[in-house]
Amino acid sequence: MSMLQEKQLTDLTVGDVMISSEKVAHVQVNNPLEHALLVLVKSGYSAIPVLDSSYKLLGTIAKTNILNQILGLERFEFERLSDIIVEEVLNEDIPCLTKSDSLLKGLHSVINHPFVCVADEEGYFDGILTRRAILKQVKKDIYSKK
Ligand code: AMP
């Protein structure tokens, strides 16, 4: 039996169910918006984490942030994508979890966000906790009690 199957839902930690950093698409803070939009469109995600060059978490960036930034009076000014960097647009006001937080704490934080970033005490990025990962565990728990 795997560790995840043995543990009760209430015993699981964020670290048990998060997507680890090497599998998470991200952008760096000094990337131009053109690169960020490319990563977002190609990955199909609506938002992704923003890291600095030492892999510390700084915030997130979403397609809507980018489109809002380049929205002119009459049209989207796509030529501005290469002049603006991620730092000027990122959301810094985001919730953050640590790997040792309980999954129930994670459950609270994904109520208002499709995913929440996970970082260590020094701010180094560890991964993300998604609604999908939480729902899978909740479903498993419900079916195991039937
Ligand atoms: P999901 O719960 O799988 O639908 O994911 C919710 C959101 O989490 C997505 O829209 C993305 O913003 C983010 N996300 C999920 N998986 C990844 C990943 N591997 N890399 C970057 N962002 C992700």
From TrEMBL:
Domain of life the protein comes from: Bacteria
Span of domain CBS: 18-78
Database matches in InterPro entries: CBS_CbpB, CBS_dom, CBS_dom_sf, Diverse_CBS-Domain
Pfam families assigned to the protein according to its UniProt record, in alphabetical order: CBS
Keyword tags: CBS domain
Protein name (Swiss-Prot/TrEMBL): CBS domain-containing protein YkuL
